[in-house]
Design a protein that fits this description.
Pfam families: Phage_GPD (PF05954). It is built from five helices and 21 strands. It has 318 residues and is α+β, with helices and mostly antiparallel strands.
C-alpha cells in the first residue's frame, strides 16, 4: 500500500508479531456504485493519519506479483475504543466532486461514443468503449440537473451496457460480454467446488419474460410504433416513450437482457483471488449441470485480515 507516494506496507504488516493491520477491504463494483477501500488498524500506538484527500494505492495478491486494486482518495476516518482502533475509508480516485456535480444540457444528433468522449475530456479522463456501443446513434437526449456520473450510468443502462470509472478512464462495455471495452477477450476464471469455501446459486421466476416491447414516435406517420425484442410470452412493456426506432430497439434489447440475466444469480467465497473483479467472467465447473458454465461477476470484495486473505463475489448468468 502506498499513501501519498510513501510505501506503508511494512508499517502495516511488518511481521506477524508486529502487524497493526486489523483488516483491509476492497469493494469492486460495476456501474454507478463507487469502488471503495476500508482500512482498519490497531491504534494503541498512534498511527499517523493521512490528510483527507490523500491518494492511496493498493495491491493485493501473492509474491512475486501482487495485483493492483486501484487508486483511492481518503474521504473519512474514525477513531474508536477501547482498544484504540482507527478506520480509514476511501473512494475511487476517479470519483471527483466535479463529475458528481449537476449539469443541464441537451445532446443532439450524436453517438454514445461522442458523448462519452466529450465527458471524459471535460474531466481529464481516458475513455475505453466497445466499438458497437461507440457507434450507437443518439438523436436527442436531455441531461436535466443531472451529474455526468448519473447521466453516463443512465445512458449505459439504456443501451445494455455497464459503466465504470477505473484506472483513470471511463469504461463502457456490453453487459455480460466476454470482451473488454477495447475488444480483447476477457480471460475466463475457472472455478470448481474445491476452490471455494462456500457458494450459493439460485434461480427465480424473474427473467422468464419471453419478449419486451418499447414504443417510439414516428413523426412522419404521426403515430406511435412498437419495437419488440425477443419472442413469446410473457411480455414486458416499457412505459417510456422513445424518440427513434433505434433508441427504442436498443432499450428493448437492454431490458430483455437485464431480465434474462437476473433469472439466475449466485455468490461464492474463496481463498483470496486477485484475478476476480467486477465484470470478469467466471467459468463454473462441477457444481451442477443446471448452473455450470459462464457467469458474469457483478461485484467483488477482497478482504485481508491476520487470519488470511479471502475473496467473495456475486454473479449472474451471462
Amino acid at each position: 500500500m502506498v499513501a501519498n507516494g510513501q510505501d506503508i506496507t511494512k508499517l502495516l504488516i511488518g511481521s506477524a508479531e508486529q502487524s497493526i493491520l486489523v483488516s483491509l477491504r476492497i469493494n469492486d463494483e460495476a456501474g454507478l456504485k463507487s469502488d471503495t477501500m476500508e482500512l482498519t488498524v490497531d491504534n494503541r500506538e498512534p498511527f499517523d493519519i493521512p490528510p483527507i484527500g490523500s491518494l492511496v494505492e493498493v495491491w493485493l495478491g501473492y509474491e512475486p506479483s501482487p495485483v493492483p486494486m486501484g487508486k483511492f482518495r481518503l474521504d473519512h476516518w474514525e477513531l474508536s475504543g477501547p482498544p484504540s482502533i482507527l478506520t480509514l475509508t476511501a473512494a475511487s480516485a476517479e470519483l471527483t466532486t466535479e463529475i458528481k456535480g449537476q449539469k443541464t444540457r441537451s445532446w443532439h444528433d450524436t453517438t454514445l461514443g461522442q458523448i462519452a468522449s466529450k465527458i471524459a475530456g471535460e474531466h481529464s479522463l481516458g475513455l475505453s468503449i466497445a466499438p458497437d456501443l461507440a457507434s450507437r446513434e443518439v438523436e436527442h437526449i436531455d441531461q436535466q440537473t443531472e451529474s455526468d456520473l448519473n447521466f453516463l450510468s443512465r445512458l449505459a443502462k439504456r443501451n445494455g451496457a455497464v459503466f465504470k470509472l477505473a484506472d483513470g478512464k471511463i469504461l463502457l462495455a456490453e453487459k455480460g460480454s466476454d470482451l473488454h471495452p477495447s475488444g480483447t477477450q476477457k480471460l475466463e476464471t475457472k472455478i470448481t467446488p474445491s476452490d471455494v469455501v462456500s457458494w450459493r446459486i439460485e434461480e427465480s421466476e424473474r427473467g422468464q419474460n419471453g419478449s419486451v416491447k418499447c414504443q417510439w414516435v414516428d413523426h412522419e406517420a404521426g403515430k406511435r410504433k412498437t419495437v419488440t425484442a425477443g419472442s413469446g410470452s410473457p411480455v414486458q412493456r416499457d412505459k417510456r416513450l422513445y424518440r427513434t426506432e433505434a433508441e427504442a430497439g436498443a432499450a428493448a434489447r437492454a431490458l430483455l437482457g437485464d431480465l434474462q440475466r437476473g433469472k439466475r444469480s449466485g455468490s461464492i467465497e474463496m481463498a483470496g483471488n486477485p484475478a476476480l473483479y467486477a465484470g470478469c467472467i467466471l467459468g463454473l465447473s462441477g457444481f451442477h449441470a443446471a448452473v455450470d458454465g459462464q457467469q458474469s461477476v457483478s461485484s467483488v470484495t477482497h478482504e485481508l485480515r491476520s487470519s488470511g486473505y479471502t475473496t467473495s463475489a456475486s454473479f449472474e448468468s451471462v
